């Protein structure tokens, strides 16, 4: 893995990340407080797999980190099917008391190709 600094590779993203009034992608739940994007961590990790996806960490207004995998030049339909599969897995995990107690889930968020091109 290699590390990219956002201040060098995407300075606007790093600079404007603190002023956004946007919800953290995939975090919206009705009747719950909105979790907003409070910033973006400066380091972007480039994975060593075939397509070199990037791992981006968004800081939530609730103090938690939200990690996203950014991929470009891919067929997003395949990613959508994988997300549906993980949704099914989450449903099955939540039906078991032990996994529910341990809060075991997996939450990928599909983004358009343009989202990966800051």
Automatic annotation (TrEMBL):
Gene3D superfamilies: Phosphatidylinositol 3-kinase Catalytic Subunit, Chain A, domain 4 (3.30.1010.10)
Gene Ontology MF terms in the entry: protein serine/threonine kinase activity
Positions of the PI3K/PI4K catalytic domain: 40-118
A Gene Ontology term for the protein's cellular component: nucleus
Origin superkingdom: Eukaryota
One GO BP: negative regulation of macroautophagy
PANTHER family (alphabetical): ATAXIA TELANGIECTASIA MUTATED ATM -RELATED (PTHR11139), SERINE_THREONINE-PROTEIN KINASE MTOR (PTHR11139:SF9)
UniProt-recorded name of the protein: PI3K/PI4K catalytic domain-containing protein
């Amino acid at each position: 893995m290699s590390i990219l600094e956002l201040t060098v590779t995407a300075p606007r993203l790093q600079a404007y990340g603190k002023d956004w009034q946007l919800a953290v992608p995939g975090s919206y739940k009705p009747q719950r407080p909105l979790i907003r994007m409070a910033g973006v961590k400066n380091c972007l990790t480039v994975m060593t797999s075939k397509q070199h996806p990037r791992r981006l960490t968004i800081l939530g207004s609730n103090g938690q980190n939200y990690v996203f995998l950014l991929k470009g030049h891919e067929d997003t339909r395949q990613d959508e099917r994988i997300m549906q599969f993980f949704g099914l897995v989450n449903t099955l995990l939540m039906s078991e008391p032990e996994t529910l107690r341990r809060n075991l889930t997996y939450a990928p968020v599909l983004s358009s190709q343009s989202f990966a091109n800051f």
